[in-house]
Every structure is written in C-alpha cells, then in structure tokens.
# Entry
Amino acid sequence: MQNLEKSFEMSVSKLDKKIVPSIDYIPPSGKVMDKEDLVNLLDSCFDMWLTAGRFAVEFEKRFADFMNQKFCLLVNSGSSANLVAFSALTSPTLGARQIKPGDEVITVAAGFPTTVNPIIQNGCIPVFIDVNFPDYGVNTDTLEKALSPKTKAIMIAHTLGNPFDVKTVKEFCDKHGLWLIEDCCDAVGAKFDGKLVGTFGDIATVSFYPAHHMTMGEGGAVLTNNPRLKKLAESFRDWGRDCWCPPGKDNTCNKRFDQKFADLPDGYDHKYVYSHVGYNLKVSDMQAAVGCSQLNKLPTFIEKRNKNTETLRKMIMTKIPNHEELMILPTALPNAQASWFGFPITLKLNNKRRDLINFLEKNKIGTRLLFAGNLIRQPLYKDKEYRVVGELTNTDMIMNNTFWVGIYPALDETHMDYISDKLKEGLLL
# Structure
C-alpha cells in the first residue's frame, strides 16, 4: 500500500510539470491531466471491469448532453468513429438511401486521411473539392459542380476547430437528399449560427486522442439525434450484431428467444444474430473513467484554447506589422465560433516553410503541417478511384506553405509571447 501511495504522489507531481519557454520544448498539442483524472482511472481499475461499464454509460450520457445530441456511442478512436459513422449509412435497412459500393461522397482534399478512408473502405468514390482561405473550410461554391447522380453523402471535417459553412452544406444536403457526416474530431464546442457543430448533420464524430480538446488516451465517439442511425452505428461498432444489449446484460428487449431472423431457426438467441459486417471498436471502462473527469474540465479547456489563439494572433499582428504581406492568419467565418485545435499559418512566400519550421523546432517550438496537405498527392491514394472537381489551388498551397503551432491549455501568454517572438525572428532570416 505504501508503494501504491508513493507511486500516486509521483504521478501527480509529473502531471503538474510546467513548460518553460526556451528551456522546455513547447509541443503543438498534448494532454492536460490532473489528480482527478488519476483518481478516476484508479477507481475504474479497482472495479476490474475491463470492457465498457459504468463509466462508459456515464460518459455517453454526459457527452451527448454536452454536444446537444440524443445519443453518444463510445468507440476506441476518432478514426474508428468515422468508420462506424460512415458504415452505418451502408446498412441495407436504409432502403433507397443506403450508400452502396460505387456511390460518390463529396469531401475535401485538405485534411486527415481517416475522414476520407471510410469512403474508400466501403467501396465508394470520394469526390474532392477545394477549400477557402483564411478559414480553411470547404468551398461551397463548388458543391453543385461536384454533384452527380451517384452522390449519396458529404463527409467533411471542421479544420483545426474552425467550422466550415455547415449551414450552407446542410441546406445543399437537404435539397438533394444527401447524408451529412460532420467530422468534429478537432472541433468539440465549436458553433455555427450559435448552434454546436455536429448537430447540423445526420451523424457526427469526435476524437479523444491526447492531442484533442479532451482525452481518454485512445478513444472517440459517434453522435446522432436519429434513433435509427444510433442502432445501426451500435451494430457496426459491436461485431455487427442485431442485439443492442450492453456488455453484461441480457434480454433487455424481453424477446431474446422469440424472434425469427433470415434462415436461422425460430427463436434463435438474439445475442448471436448478426445483421451487418461489423467490427469490435468499443473502449475500456478505464478510458471512459478518464473521459468522465476530463469532461468536467472541457469548458475550461475550450476557453483556454480560444484565449491563446486570440493572444497569439494579436501578438503576431503587433510584432509583425507587415504580417499580411508575409502570411495568412486563421479567421473564422462571420457566423462561426471556433473551438481552436491549433493555430494555422500559411506563408505567402514559396519555399520558406521548411527553413522557418526548422528554425522554430531548433528553438524548441513544436510545429505540425496541416495533416496530409493534399490527400491526392499522398501515396495511399495513388491506386484508388476518386474524382476531383475544379482546381485544388488552395489545397496545394496548404500542402506547400501551411503549418500550425500549439495553443492547447497547458500553454499561456508567456508561451504565445515566445512563439510570436521566434516567428518574427525566423521570418527575418
């Protein structure tokens, strides 16, 4: 017991470590955890209930409430959330609206691959369109050109926590009978027209990887207000089964041995009836326990991210008077309220980014590119079928000239001051 107490105190002290500019490396992202998270983790460990349990049930309810959704399904990652969300729309039970192999899905080429991969993994064809500056959101003027008789859905992420024009996209989807999947993995708490992102579409996804707004280590969630889609997503998450009983529960429908399915014998055990080619993508209760304590701090995390973003923006504008000639700073659309994941900078001078980010890294400032840059230039799509509509001019500029720095909650004004100083110094080289 003494060893356990000592380990606990050592772990708490590590969580309190501060990042000192110029001495410590300033990561572009990272987890922010405290004693409460450690206590919750230990609490779940002592249950020895290693799959989803009481903490998962608590988290799903609370997070659904936070995101203003009726249903939340925990999965083991944001990437799995995208796979489950898209796969749910391929269910034959959806009739004419079922997404089938060969159907097209409109998306953007500037982003993270697992927003697009589920389209390909389900035998469909991504249709890539360009994005706009300075919000990095989808160019909605291209939507009509991207539409074809094969189009069944739109699946797009809110880039680095900055909402795309989701109202226009939703209206387009309603007009043409398309599904809308919102990838909110970088954008928890962001709003458009005062309404939370994730609530515009038919189904939404979130990630709880350590880099994101809150964490449970690995983890993600699928969110929807549609009971039918909730049941389908649950089926694809849980082996493709038809039964919706949670782990450790039996016969919650009171019809376990009283139904007929396909060519199975009458009354075949409903727990072992499978209606989809599914996966096993659940979380452990230990992950959910950390998520529950992190959720208590989520509003503060979001507030701190947005404060750091505005502080860094003002410092850059003050210290670099000619910044508009040198770079594009991130800006939200007029009706959008961002929940920033990172601070993207696009340099207007070509062939400058490599030298600048090397300079920043040497000065212990972490940088990241805007994920895959232009997805169609990546090796994984070289032999895949896709369509491109229009010129991906801005996407290519992102690939060549964009990077981002951290504004996550472990950082404060002193870090923003140091980052802006070194950014100015690096631009003068």
User: Anything to note?
Assistant: The first strand starts at residue 71 and ends at 75. The mean pLDDT is 95. DSSP finds 13 helices and 15 strands in the chain.
